[in-house]
């Protein structure tokens, strides 16, 4: 690890003031992505601003329409939340399947979406549920927030404070784990709001999580796995490596979408 | 049976210490003034070093010194030798055996080879300085693929070996095999790729070197399996000094698996740097550094032809294999390639065997031992050939095996190839394993799985393996004046529970309670000889060693006991810790005799006091642990995901000292064998860059990937040592590889797939199923509602 100065402030306002006083700095949430990269000397920064004391960034609130999750809420807390389990069980399940118990005890929702690892699980949930990402600069719709691999709409010095997830009628997340890293080799989040269906895919694409428009149209037309028959994922945009070539990933997108739809149907049969 | 003696599943004596963080791993006890060593490694798999400029880096903060190959030449620093000789491919003489270099001179031959070492006050300072070293390379074409190593146009890694084919080992009787094949009713051929894997012990490699100026000698504390053998290599081959000028000790070590039985460059480098700089020097591998620089293992491409008569009895076996050595031949490299080829005889009566093994250099880190060390490389091919023959004949592979098993009444059995098996009851092991696994009911389970759209398979693998092939070992038992026991051996405990089993043996023979037994560190200063823990030897050889040492101690104690008991030593018997004078009611406890032995005033003039005894023992021939392994798997054809359903093994490790520890050894061994079958593999790109350089890409199995393992014992004591012990260290791995792979292949059988190479990772399985037409070709899963 290269040397850096370590800072922290007691709340978001002071954190932003601190950030503004430093020419170059990075926020540290759970540190489950940044710290390993720093230890390997693949990432470095002169200043780390630890967010651990920003208590207002933690917590889960559920209303009839949305679940709001504070940016510093850990995966383990989302997974165990009775509110999330009741309102969007698929989201609790997604959080419970991230990393291992140690990662879930440190890693945070805000850290995951701000980092936008192309195989992270949360971005799929944000896109499929149509979440609003709340930042210190304002609200950004998930569709506008995720731009490219490790690239988001966040401006320099802007901090994710939380996300609002609209509560769907039914949803499911089907994840095929990377056999080594246990990230999503392919993860598909399906959410149904009345007739409207949203489908988001993570892990598979070269450009990070994305919405699968063709599947959304077909499922909005009729929410059943029959609607998916003959629907092919274009493999030219898919990622390929030793754990799965692009053809395999495209195939897995189709399989995981079907499984997510089946699970959604089981959780709340379509009217 | 004594309370703490042989045969008891007593709890492990070392666990409390290790689990409470009170272990003494090398990294826990670094001297306060030690420098940290960082190895600057070659980024190229094959390149000329044109120049190394360390000017800027020497001025970097905290740097105490930087050494390169130029300095190594100045000090005439040697390399580690290959211990196993072979022959040149043209038969003209011995094979070319370049020493395993500890630091590159003018050419780098694998990515990760040490090019320079930086010593600084902190590791970060050493890394900072290393970034400032300017190395100018002229990249050369790398030889990465074992299959293509001798293709025309490939560069030569060594001028002495132009086509990179270092050696040809020829084994068995070619004429007899040709004769058998000419009369065979059927011949069954198979090609098997035994993948390349990383050993990945929980504790990475680690070493601390100290130069003892007062005594003028090198001292090493390191994570090694055999301090004595390591010392021999370091003294004779690296520093070219007498062995007494080198001390090596290994305290707690977190897993060895063969990797740490093979000396690696950093052991020499910390000692060399310590002498150069006059301060202790410490190095601790990072995990990613380990993937790059730990010797890898396996990596064979093999072809096997099995000839059967009309009753499906084996009449001959031909084997032809290519083995990867890496860029240098490690201490055990040729052993893994050719030294365990004897395992081709398996548990079957095979009248004629002939094998040719060609070993090749490639621009990859050298190959060395890993649990099995050549045994699974041979047995997985044989056991796959058995299943392929059963496939061809439409026969139950269990029945084909049963027909060919060596029978217990044939023991000891001379295979006619390399081994003479000591004992074992292979048919009973197979029966018990089949019953436990409900082999007979499998086809029902397969059909039920198919209705759910899943491919289910069952596989059997028989293991028989040589253990305690290295027979000699030294040990010493010392008795304190209160009768407590201190002992040392050349074995090193790095997870096998030897602190427990060795205590059990002493307790058995000397009737001393465990709390009065202390085990000394494995240290060349404690005793001067030892072969270490490797090759499943510590239980069998250690049992014979401790029995011998104990008998010698008792023999002397009887002479001493005769004094207070006022009789002749021949009239004394030792029963349950007490010396009795026959025909009298006079007794003396072990503690009383020990006290007298250490009270020269109470002994007759000229009598030798003390009760210590030290010697080297050599038990009889090697032992052959064996067992029948069965694995059952289910594959999701849609995704290629594999679910390991169950695992059953009937093992014969001979008499066991601690059945619980034996089970643990089997479980761990099976997990490592299945790990390789299900997903572990090392992959390089075309330039020789490692693609699987961390656990993000290297598919290490998790606990949940390993099925429940049912172990059944059918132990037949070995006649080759006084306790009947065979050994348990490696058979789990050696049996799990064929059982696991046969199960995978059996699951794919309904698709017409005859063979599938490891690893059975989801992508590879899906592709194989997809290419074979998919599961729809054999059934229509029930329509979803």
From TrEMBL, chain A:
Positions of the FAD-binding PCMH-type domain: 1-170
Keyword match Oxidoreductase: yes
A GO term, aspect molecular function: FAD binding
Keyword Oxidoreductase: yes
SMART domains from the UniProt entry: CO_deh_flav_C
Superkingdom of the organism of origin: Bacteria
Keywords: FAD, Flavoprotein, Oxidoreductase
Name by which UniProt lists this protein: FAD-binding molybdopterin dehydrogenase
From TrEMBL, chain B:
One Pfam short name: MoCoBD_1
Record-linked InterPro entries: Ald_Oxase/Xan_DH_a/b, Ald_Oxase/Xan_DH_a/b_sf, Ald_Oxase/xanthine_DH-like, AldOxase/xan_DH_MoCoBD1, AldOxase/xan_DH_MoCoBD2, AldOxase/xan_DH_Mopterin-bd_sf
UniProt protein name: Carbon-monoxide dehydrogenase large subunit
SUPFAM superfamilies: CO dehydrogenase molybdoprotein N-domain-like (SSF54665), Molybdenum cofactor-binding domain (SSF56003)
Molecular-function GO terms, alphabetical: iron ion binding; oxidoreductase activity
Organism of origin: Hyphomonas johnsonii MHS-2
Domain (Aldehyde oxidase/xanthine dehydrogenase a/b hammerhead) ranges: 20-141
Keyword terms, alphabetized: Molybdenum, Oxidoreductase
Keyword Oxidoreductase: yes
SMART domains listed in its UniProt record: Ald_Xan_dh_C
Transmembrane residue ranges: none
This protein's record includes keyword Amino-acid biosynthesis: no
